[in-house]
Design a protein that fits this description.
- The protein is α+β, with helices and mostly antiparallel strands.
- The protein is about 25% helix and about 20% strand.
- It contains two helices and five strands, in the order E-H-E-E-E-E-H.
- The chain has helices at about 25-35, 110-125; strands at about 20-25, 45-50, 55-60, 75, 95.
- A five-stranded antiparallel β-sheet has the order 4-1-3-2-5.
- Helix 1 (about 25-35) crosses helix 2 (about 110-125).
- The longest helix is centred in the C-terminal third of the chain and has 20 residues, at about 110-125.
- The two termini are about 25 Å apart.
Length: about 130
Amino acid sequence: MMTTSRNNDPLEPAGPDWDVVTVPARQGLEAVDILRRGAGDAVGPVLHDGGCGTLGFLVPPGTAAAWDVPGSVCTETDGRGICLMPDRPAEDSDWLVPPGEADLATDPAVLREALGQAQRMIEAADSCR
């Protein structure tokens, strides 16, 4: 699972506040495809961990307080631990959808719907084996 760390270094400025929804990579990749096929720019920046086991969607701050989607975790970052520079995200991760190619954050309601649809697609595909 991808984690974000709080950087308490007073010399490093805090970035904008956001929360991060972390999901298994397979479900996250399906959700990114669903969001990209939707109307407008529905997907914000997305991180993947070094081992490509999870994806992290940047969502607006406060999302973690009400996030209850099974199989995912929403973590507060308080603007620390992730840098919105295309070449310098959180430690041991990289951008799947870099900042600058996407809105600042993915709408949590839209993400919740896409993750549900992605899970249903995965279950359907797995049942066909």
